[in-house]
Design a protein that fits this description.
Layout (H helix, E strand, L loop, with lengths): L5 H22 L5 H14 L4 E6 L2 E3 L2 E3 L4 E6 L3 E6 L6 H14 L3 E6 L10 E5 L1
Parallel strand pairs: 5-6
Antiparallel strand pairs: 1-4, 2-3, 4-5, 6-7
Length: 130
């Protein structure tokens, strides 16, 4: 993960949230997570951000890197992890998943986005810090 100042991370997370709101405005709720991920990635790329999807996240166990199947939905500018959901409501397990990804990667900030809501800014966005 790329070390950035909190100001730099805040700028990236603001851009991601803006792009997510744009995607939600056009698509609305009810689609698969993969559809939202692709559209969000497109918006971020159009905005000049580096956005990688399905990034493998190995687990280091006793000094050995093991591929346990963990994948980051999006990694933006090598600094912010975005976990995308399309569920009735976010649960503590979703937050735990993102926090685990932050710990495993050494990242500082992640966004948990639930697109299955009426308005994204009302309960569909959680910003987590490691």
């Amino acid at each position: 993960m790329k070390p950035l100042s909190m100001d730099g991370l805040n700028k990236i997370t603001e851009a991601i949230i803006g792009a997510a709101i744009e995607v939600h405005r056009h698509l609305g709720p009810g689609l698969l997570e993969s559809a939202y991920r692709e559209c969000l990635r497109y918006e971020l790329l159009q905005g000049g951000y580096k956005a990688l999807q399905e990034v493998p996240l190995p687990l280091t166990y006793k000094g050995i890197k093991l591929d346990c199947g963990y994948r980051l939905d999006l990694l933006v500018n090598d600094a912010v992890i975005v976990e995308i959901k399309s569920v009735e409501s976010l649960a503590s397990i979703h937050e735990a998943q993102l926090l685990s990804y932050l710990k495993l990667s050494g990242g500082k900030v992640g966004l948990l986005l639930n697109f299955n809501v009426k308005m994204l800014k009302h309960g569909g966005i959680k910003r987590l810090i490691n």
